[in-house]
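Revision sheet: structure tokens.
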Amino acid sequence: MGATREEVVKVICQDYGNDRSRLLDIARDVREQLGCVDSPAVDCIAEVLSIPRVEIESLVSFYSFLYSEPQGQVQIRICNDVPDMMKGADRIASELEEELGIQVGETTPDGKFSLEYASCIGLSDQAPSALVNDLMVPRLGAGTARRGVQILKERGELKELDKLLIRDYGDGNNAHDLVRSACSNHIRKAGEVILAEMRRGAGLEKALAMSPVEVIREIKTSRLRGRGGAGFPTGMKWEFTRAADGDRRYLVCNADEGEPGTFKDRVILTERPDLLFEGMTIGGYAIGAEDGLVYLRAEYAYLREFLEHALAKRRELGLLGENVCGKEGFHFDIRIQMGAGAYICGEETALISSCEGLRGDPKNRPPFPAQHGYLGKPTSVNNVETLCCVARILQRGSGWFSAIGSPGSTGTKLLSISGDCMRPGVYEVPFGIRLSEVFAMCDAQDPMAAQVGGPSGKMVGEADFDRTICFDDLATGGSLMVFGCDRDVLEIASQFMQFFVHESCGYCTPCRVGNVLLKERLDKILGGHGQPTDLEYLQRLGESIKMASRCGLGQTSPNPVLSTLESFRSAYEERIRDADDVEESGFDLQSALSTAQTLTGRKSVHFED
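Predicted:
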């Protein structure tokens, strides 16, 4: 006789030491084993962990990969970011709706299939794509999605989906026994920093021959800036963290690559996990941490076993654990913390909240994570690419690294290029490269615009194609979407705004309400009902949201509107009615009330000025 629901939940809680800070892991495991985190499961978790059930319900409702009600045995998440929609994701959705007899957001009556959208799954270079449970399914063509579902319908047993749905594995470690993915790396240009080969332990050995202060000085001398987009100096962040008061410190790697159009971390995690883990270990030594966490986005769960294997190998070789590399007194290990689907967790304080088993709500700053971070302790949060640069800097020296790129932006940058180009993929380029050079590399024929830095970045037109990619000009965390002359920039901006409306945590009014108002007014213009005053309204509202929002999401979410107003103002003006038509295009209260008046039998009321 199988274990009861309560017994399963109690065992899961015990596996995590009944630790409240591991609530996200507990909820993930409950959802995986029981199909959902329903009310009885919530009651049991609350009792075991001695916490209010509302905290658990709040967490479950926050993350898109957690559910309070049963879902299908097979969950199909169709990516609907802009690059995927450009390649026909909507047609794939319609095809699957017809085949399954349900709409997006529903589950088949037999409980076998659920169909939904996902904001971005990290395959913009292989669109249209979908996530089937934890299986990445790239390059969905006409009929292939339908045929895949038909195959699953024919099979009573739905284990080992990869054997049913994948014919050929991708290149490199995508074909590894612990990965088995159809994804392609699409490494179009490998540079000398991230994608070059490196002997395991080469950077760490040199770091441990130095003092922690000397390591930080080497990173500061290299002028390495965080690769997440904001570009804060890494050495300075480490210095602050090391100097902060605290009996324990943490180093957290942000591998929550959720910015639509970004997928370079997926390639690093697949092909250069040792480089990342080496950079984390060096960082731990520099700041005085014994614990490192990799926050891995839920969409990349298929890589977890492979990454755990790489960590186990490093422990076996003495590169992790007690007395790393024989360095007496230096103990450091790394744990993978799975996310559960929330774009906001890319923001460092929201990520820390999630690591603590909470909703991914951003925290107020100050205090900053360097002083008061994970579990209230000094914490340095660095992204995947930054930590890879660290390992290479210690291996080859700060002088070598700072000679690459531009004076204010040293080293290389990984670009995730997608959209209207013949060669989408990952490019490692030196900082300071011109946008026009990037177009030539990816074979973007007759580009009209580029979105640099994802939806939160900047839309630029032909007048800006000679600008450079660096922190002091066109800054980017990695995403670069190319748009050809047949694209409608306002329609793209509207889709980006829909993404922000969906992903806002809802904590602060400027972001929660302001983004909705921005999209509504933009859609009004798209529909041909815009007025001359609407452009000033969009500008003022967008600037107000940026200034008043609590975290980085709200501070950048108006950018799709503000940057298109700046670079493509004529696209707005072409849709604006003449001043003589303003009254006609305004809101007609009498017309809006006419249906209700007819239904209720009330007489028409005339409003006068």
